[in-house]
Design brief:
By secondary structure, the chain is an all-beta fold. The radius of gyration is 19 Å and the shape is globular. It has one helix at 124-127; strands spanning 2-4, 10-14, 81-88, 91-99, 105-109, 115-119, 139-140, 146-151, 155-160, 172-173, 181-182, 188-190, 193-197, 199-200, 211-216, 222-227, 256-257, 264-268, 282-284. The strands form six sheets. Strands 3-4-5-6 form a four-stranded antiparallel β-sheet, with no helix packed on it. Strands 7-8-9-10 form a four-stranded antiparallel β-sheet, with no helix packed on it. It is 1% helix and 30% strand.
Length: 285
């Protein structure tokens, strides 16, 4: 089923794929704890944006709160994530993780504001100060040993919570033209898969296509790609090889996992719609 929408935004319902098994994804369902983890943008795989009913802060605590300013070596135009009581450099810390516009990922002690570690992607020096940025929020692995983060050179990184070191077999390239395809959406995680969508930069300069990439978190292997334009191609596209451009997936929520069905929801922008291979401005389930 599909419904055409105007003028620029759409929802696309994608059948999720299992981790190499052909089964459908199931949404992550982390247990809500008092003052527990906030592992991704929107709290859970469905982006409910609602955490525990008891946060540990009440009206009686307001007078006790103190302002703390933490100076970062970059702009964070994305949400932080939070892991409580994880081991970093051999000690337990309540820790925030953030990614800066040019792809640095930082681990920050929640109590002191100290930078526990920083990861700088290899292409950072060529990106800093340019138009190529990311607004992607990291996502934590359910095992709490790794976080996944994007950089505007077109890669997704798997970083050790304990040290910030890149995991073996990573990073994973999720676009063949990072100069045009922007990693703007927040990362998601469901049933062993890291999920990310791509869009375009301001000005919509072609060529680019929005697409969804599912990565096996254990191996770093791309197991599925859905292209919103030229969707008959099930791999990373060279954007110039597709006759159509645009149809970006650019919302901060990125790829959303539907509870129960395991389907994926994404929003597509302006682009061609033909109900067959091109899915701009449409709803498809």
């Amino acid at each position: 089923m599909y419904v055409r929408l105007f003028p620029v935004l759409a929802l696309v319902c994608l059948l999720a794929v299992g981790c190499g098994s052909g089964s459908s994804l199931q949404p992550s369902a982390p247990a809500a704890k008092l003052g527990g983890d906030w592992t991704r943008f929107g709290y859970d795989a469905a982006r409910h944006d609602a955490g525990p009913s008891k946060t540990g802060i009440t009206s009686a605590d307001v007078r006790k709160l103190k302002k703390q300013r933490v100076v970062l070596d970059g702009t964070v135009d994305a949400s932080p994530i939070y892991l409580r009581g994880v081991t970093v450099h051999g000690s337990r810390h309540d820790t925030f993780f953030v990614t800066t516009s040019y792809g640095r990922t930082l681990a920050i002690d929640a109590a002191t504001g100290a930078i526990l570690w920083r990861f700088t992607p290899s292409g950072y020096s060529s990106l800093a100060g340019s138009y190529r940025i990311t607004n992607s929020t990291p996502v934590a692995d359910p095992n709490r040993k790794f976080v996944y983060a994007a950089s505007p050179d077109g890669f997704v990184h798997k970083l050790s919570v304990a040290s910030g070191a890149e995991a073996r077999g990573w990073p994973v390239r999720v676009t063949l033209l990072p100069q045009r395809e922007k990693l703007a959406t927040s990362l998601n995680f469901s049933r062993g898969l890291v999920l990310i969508g791509t869009g375009g930069y301001i000005g919509d300069q072609p060529p680019y296509q929005g697409h969804v990439v599912a990565i096996n978190a254990a191996t770093g292997r791309i197991v599925h790609v859905w292209n919103s334009l030229c969707s008959n191609v099930h791999r990373l596209l060279n954007p110039k090889s597709c006759p159509q451009s645009n149809s970006a997936i650019w919302a901060r929520s990125g790829v959303v996992v539907v509870p129960g069905s395991g389907n994926l929801l994404v929003a597509t922008g302006n682009g061609r719609f033909d109900g067959n291979r091109n899915w701009g401005d449409s709803v498809r389930c």
